[in-house]
Design a protein that fits this description.
By secondary structure, this protein is an alpha+beta fold. It folds into two domains: about 1-75 and about 230-245, Immunoglobulin-like, CATH 2.60.40; about 85-225, C8orf32 fold (Roll), CATH 3.10.620.30. The chain contains five helices and 15 strands. The strands form four sheets. The protein has a five-stranded antiparallel β-sheet with strand order 4-3-7-1-15, with no helix packed on it.
Length: about 260
């Protein structure tokens, strides 16, 4: 499978700021390009890789305009993500956006007694039918509990609720930010990954893109670990963003099958 992705981001800065971007694909690419400019002049980023394999590009930017242009082509499929004992501890804990302790009673009442693929199917279907996908409906601090109360959200809200419910049932779960060929409207996408049958498997209650075409960008406990941009210092305004992802084939997606990000 040949997948081609890109991201264009334009910012304005009121004061000096440190910018941390997570837009690069995890792992190796056949072809890859990253261009950063501050007030029209090229700048260089420091690349870091976190424990989950997410690539972070760190820049100290001056006030004014800033732009990022990224493109990559990935040929074939990577091996499945590894599973460590630390993962199975860390991704069971409640986190900022996935309040599994608060939702424990709900999870047990709705899904108690289920396990494995049957549990993933049930949680994905339950979240998908109870939430409405409404762009712009959630705030940056809304977690799984608020999403359930509002009964609406975007992809990260769906993923947070899935993760919280699974963790409440002792299933390790985490969030993956991805490029998603076939997504409409096109944007960065977020899905849950659950540890069942010895590996990490995708749960996407939005069902907006074929899971087998998804291309991993970053991985973490929730959106706090996987944001495409975080900043410290001066005020940063997002002026424009454009994301593209295509694949040489868009297969159908049987939601009852286990699928791993590769």
């Amino acid at each position: 499978m040949l997948r081609t992705v890109s991201a264009e981001i334009a910012l304005s800065l009121a004061a000096p700021a440190r910018l941390a971007f997570m837009v690069a694909v995890a792992g190796e690419a056949l072809v890859e390009r990253l261009e950063l400019t501050s007030n029209g002049a090229p700048v260089t980023a420091t690349e870091l890789t976190d424990a989950a394999g997410s690539r972070i590009h760190l820049v100290d930017a001056e006030p004014g305009s800033f732009s990022l242009s990224y493109a990559a082509t990935v040929d074939g499929r990577r091996p499945p993500a590894p599973v460590t004992e630390l993962d199975l501890v860390e991704y069971l804990r409640p986190s900022r956006y996935c309040e599994s302790d608060t939702l424990a009673a709900t999870a047990v009442a709705e899904f108690g007694g289920l396990g494995g693929t049957q549990l993933l199917d049930a949680v994905s279907s339950w979240v998908g039918t109870r939430l409405s996908y409404v762009p712009g409906s959630s705030g940056p601090t809304d977690g799984a509990v608020q999403t359930l109360l509002d009964r609406q959200g975007v992809c990260r809200d769906y993923a947070h609720l899935v993760i919280a419910l699974l963790r409440a049932l002792d299933v390790p779960a985490r969030l993956a930010a991805v490029y998603a060929p076939g997504l409409d409207p096109m944007d960065f996408h977020a899905v849950a990954e659950a540890h069942v049958a010895g590996g990490w498997h995708v749960v996407d209650a939005t069902a907006l893109a074929p899971r087998s075409t998804l291309l991993r960008i970053s991985t973490g406990r929730d959106a706090a670990d996987t944001a495409f941009l975080s900043s410290s210092g001066g005020g940063v305004n997002l002026d424009a963003i454009e994301v593209m992802a295509t694949a040489d084939e868009l297969p159908s997606d049987d939601m009852t099958e286990l699928v791993q990000l590769r």
